[in-house]
Amino acid sequence: MEKIREIDEQYMRQALSLARMGYGAVEPNPMVGCVIVRDGVVVGRGFHRKFGGDHAEIDALREAGDKADGATCYVTLEPCSHYGKTPPCTSALIRAKLVRIVVAMEDPFPKVHGNGINELRAAGIEVEVGLLENEARQLNATYLLRVNQSRPLITAKWAMSLDGKIATRTGAGKWISCERSREIVQDLRKRSSAIMIGIGTVLADDPLLTVRNIEKMKHHPLRVVLDSQLKLPLNSKLVQTSEKTPLMLVVSEAAAAEHTPQVEQLENAGVKLLRYQSENGEQHPPMEWVLEQLFEQYNIGKLLVEGGANVLGKLFDANLIDEVHVFIATKLLGGERAKSPIAGIGIEQMQNALRLENPKIEIIEKDIYVHGSVVR
Q1: Fewer beta carbons within 10 Å, N or C terminal of the chain?
Q2: Which SS3 state, helix, strand or coil, does residue 53 take?
Q3: DSSP character for 156?
Q4: How far apart are CA 236 and CA 206, in angstroms?
Q5: What dihedral do alpha carbons 190, 193, 198, 203 form, nearest 10°?
Q6: 110 half-sphere exposure, CB direction, 13 A CA radius
Q7: pLDDT, tens digit, for every residue of 13-23?
Q8: 88-97 tens-digit pLDDT
Q9: What is the C-alpha to C-alpha distance for residues 15 and 73, in angstroms, rounded to an integer?
Q10: Least confident span in 25-29, 69-73, 147-151
């Protein structure tokens, strides 16, 4: 049995690797990979290549042809059993006369959940579920949040000194991390639907929040600035690049009404404004509302939050951070007034601290890079 499981894991890992090849092209669908094996030989490989295109199972069956008869199929997500943009995969798998199907995880999408597995079993096919399920869940964490919680996956990123400061006591923060660490941040941006920061970070650093080699990308992540009082300077790098690179400001209705000429100038420059109704003198937009708007109106599935401390603090206090990427420079800044990366209320007891699940720790030149998913 151990040998069989070892072989099964080998093929499922191949399917997971294939699934990753659909990254950036299948959203809001999940990434799915499929491997078909007959008599110890891989006869079909497939993955979901683009949104609206054939699913992984169909892609693999096309390559396998008649060799799928009597074979075993390894697939990273439960096969669909309903008509959507494509016909149900279960019907194709049954017609191909597969004898065994190994599924990494069930699909939580209501039209599929459990139905695909039940239909395959009813047709006499042996179905096993749960092999490398954790890996499959990590692969499609964004999709799972979309289906289960209707919100984006939130990745928190910051760079800090060895003593936990994101800037000096005067607010100087460039550059704490090394060039190689900043290249990794570029990769994080490329893998995100949107990048969000607070107006304090804009005023302190005047960032671009752009992705290098943008001409090679199909779209640039939406840049989002939480700017309740409409303090964004018209000559900022963000505004100056807003015609080519999308920019959105989250502002209060009161501030927008008070600064009508500035609003017109911003909108003429290509800036989108997302207005909210402030209540009880609230200085910042409700974070849950912002996430809801980004998800429902702009189809944001993965949100990278690059600060500042107040924004990250609100997300932390609301338990909305899903992943963390921290670059620790081997520098000491000192100073009671020097900011730490996460503000907000914070926790009271050490046992309530958020922890990372199986964090990875890497040395990047002179920086220490820690990243992982938050334990729920």
Answers
A1: N
A2: coil
A3: E
A4: 6
A5: 50
A6: 4
A7: 999 999 999 98
A8: 899 999 999 9
A9: 10
A10: 25-29
From CA 116, how far away is CA 101, in angstroms rounded? 11
Tens-digit pLDDT profile for residues 203-226: 989 999 999 876 555 678 999 999
In what helix (H) or strand (E) does residue 34 lie, and over which residues does it extend? Answer: strand 33-38
Task: Provide the phi-psi class of 104: left if phi over 0, else alpha when psi is between -120 and 50, else beta.
Answer: alpha
Q: Which residues sit opposite 273 in a β-bridge? A: 249
Residue of 27, 57, 306, 323 marked catalytic: 57
Cα 209 to Cα 69: distance, rounded to the nearest angstrom: 51
CB 74 within 8 A of CB 18: no
d(CA 194, CA 246): 10
Instruction: Give catalytic status of residue 57 as yes or no.
Output: yes
First to last CA, the chain: 33
Q: Are 220 and 245 in contact (CB under 8 A)?
A: yes
Sequential DSSP letters for 205-244 = H------TTGGGSSSPPEEEEE-TT----TTSHHHHTTTT
The dihedral of CA 53, 186, 272, 140: what is its sign?
positive
Residue keyed to tokens 């151990």: 2
316-353: burial string, b at 16+ Cβ within 10 Å, e else: beeebbbbbbbbbbeeebeeeebbbbbbeeeeeeeeee
Q: What 8-state DSSP symbol labels residue 375?
A: P
Parallel/antiparallel/unpaired status of strands 100-103 and 222-226: unpaired
